[in-house]
Design goal:
Number of helices: 11
Helix content: over 70%
Order of helices and strands: HHHHHHHHHHH
Number of strands: 0
Strand content: under 5%
Shape: elongated
Number of domains: 2
Structural class: mainly alpha
Length: 245
């Protein structure tokens, strides 16, 4: 068991720490010595359960931070990386509408899509937390040995279906709340009046749900990287013990 935990710790620390820092290297040495039973400082050793619990805690912190950022006013609309654009399959609609002097209406419509995503993001945290609680030691090993966004990939795999089911009705209500039809109906009506055009009317609920989740996982990936690389992002005692402070 000691050898098992020692290997886990080495993988864990190499995966998450900045190995170019001499102090960090010393911390890794101390931690590994503790886990393997070699005499070292008075620091207490960490069991494999504590290491996995630290990973769960890191994921919880990252997911909650991401959801908090996304659900703020302008969480989507004010962030160029995750802002939801005019539906690509309706790009011709956008071009025609703007050529007809409706640019402000188009811009207002895009803003309503992002407001709906910001509202829906408030529902994400319980679903993330539930998925994290169900993580097994085997899941933890896969994450620790995986690529830089392995934790984000884990959450995406485990939560996309329940998040979609939760997001879509919230998006629908939010689109109604921000009165998206006030902006969309004039655009699509004017477009469909143009001779010889192919009529387009995308499923806005599905579109905003899909893009909203893409943006949320993008933010989680950023939080994951931050916790791996930045000691200041380790905001709990367990995170500081597991990741090294």
């Amino acid at each position: 068991m000691k050898k098992y935990v020692s290997i886990l710790w080495i993988v864990f620390m190499l995966f998450f720490c900045n190995l170019t820092n001499a102090t960090t290297m010393n911390e890794i040495k101390k931690k590994v010595e503790n886990v393997s039973g070699t005499p070292s400082s008075s620091e207490s050793s960490l069991s494999n359960e504590e290491v996995i619990q630290g990973l769960k805690e890191a994921l919880s912190v990252g997911a909650k931070n991401a959801a908090s950022l996304a659900s703020k006013i302008n969480g989507y609309y004010g962030n160029p990386k995750i802002r939801i654009p005019f539906p690509p399959d309706a790009q011709k609609v956008k071009n025609v509408a703007e050529s007809l002097g409706m640019k402000k209406v188009v811009d207002d419509f895009v803003k309503t899509l992002n407001r709906a995503a910001e509202e829906a993001a408030k529902e994400a945290v319980p679903i993330f937390v539930d998925a994290i609680k169900q993580m097994t030691i085997q899941d933890g090993f896969k994450i620790l040995k995986g690529p830089d966004d392995a934790a984000t990939q884990y959450l995406r795999q485990k939560t996309t279906a329940p998040l979609t089911a939760k997001f879509r009705p919230v998006v629908h209500q939010a689109l109604q709340k921000v009165n998206v039809t006030k902006y969309w109906n004039p655009i699509i009506t004017r477009y469909n009046q143009v001779p010889l055009v192919t009529r387009v009317n995308p499923d806005l609920d599905a579109y905003v749900t899909e893009k909203g989740l893409d943006g949320l996982f993008y933010l989680i990936a950023k939080e994951e990287k931050k916790i791996r690389e930045n000691p200041a992002a380790r905001v709990t005692e367990l995170l500081r013990r597991v990741f090294g402070s």
